[in-house]
């Protein structure tokens, strides 16, 4: 008979060991894209000193998540989803899973699952870190590490169970209502695209 995991001692946390090592090294070596991102990075590194449990959604004090701002091949369009729970347009992303080995890989997995697009490519350097309250575990914090992800020229999106709609938008004309923190991802994501092209 399968035993249900206890939320108190978070069994299976060892499955996040590699991801914890990656997240700690990545954020410790990252140059923040702004003052708020720097403060959020420092708070997230403090959270990570508690060990791999900080990557699990069971960690009520807060947990690290990964998200992706998806750009088309030209940088002229950004893919956002209308989130099914809070009914705002937002970048793709979500909780880390035990099989994730890197935060960039977690962001790429989430982007693929939520967009249905094959052939996405992630820039491994974060474009932002943001901390915001969520309803997980009756109230928690997401320490969201955000990445730029690039879609192939022939990308065709498919709505997932987690969103009401997907849409491509010009970077200077994002839709409303827009989730807080999404607009600030545009400039660093476009910079990442230029670095990739250069």
UniProtKB/TrEMBL annotation:
<dbReference type="GO" id="GO:0016787">
    <property type="term" value="F:hydrolase activity"/>
</dbReference>
<feature type="domain" description="Nudix hydrolase">
    <location>
        <begin position="61"/>
        <end position="191"/>
    </location>
</feature>
<dbReference type="InterPro" id="IPR000086">
    <property type="entry name" value="NUDIX_hydrolase_dom"/>
</dbReference>
<keyword id="KW-0378">Hydrolase</keyword>
<dbReference type="InterPro" id="IPR015797">
    <property type="entry name" value="NUDIX_hydrolase-like_dom_sf"/>
</dbReference>
<comment type="similarity">
    <text>Belongs to the Nudix hydrolase family.</text>
</comment>
<dbReference type="Pfam" id="PF00293">
    <property type="entry name" value="NUDIX"/>
</dbReference>
<protein>
    <submittedName>
        <fullName>NUDIX hydrolase</fullName>
    </submittedName>
</protein>
């Amino acid at each position: 008979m399968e035993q249900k995991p206890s939320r108190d001692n978070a069994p299976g946390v060892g499955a996040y060991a590699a991801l914890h090592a990656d997240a700690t090294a990545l954020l410790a070596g990252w140059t923040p894209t702004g003052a708020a991102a720097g403060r959020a990075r420092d708070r997230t590194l403090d959270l990570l000193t508690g060990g791999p449990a900080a990557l699990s959604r069971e960690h009520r004090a807060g947990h690290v998540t990964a998200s992706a701002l998806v750009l088309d091949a030209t940088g002229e369009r950004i893919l956002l989803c209308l989130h099914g729970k809070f009914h705002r347009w937002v970048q793709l992303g979500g909780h880390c899973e035990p099989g994730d080995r890197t935060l960039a890989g977690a962001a790429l997995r989430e982007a693929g699952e939520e967009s249905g697009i094959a052939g996405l490519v992630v820039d491994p350097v974060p474009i932002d870190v943001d901390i915001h309250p969520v309803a997980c575990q009756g109230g928690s914090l997401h320490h969201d590490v955000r990445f730029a992800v690039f879609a192939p020229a022939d990308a065709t999106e498919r709505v997932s169970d987690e969103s009401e709609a997907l849409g491509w938008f010009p970077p200077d004309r994002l839709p409303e209502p827009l989730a807080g923190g999404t607009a600030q991802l545009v400039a660093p994501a476009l910079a990442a695209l230029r670095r990739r092209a250069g």
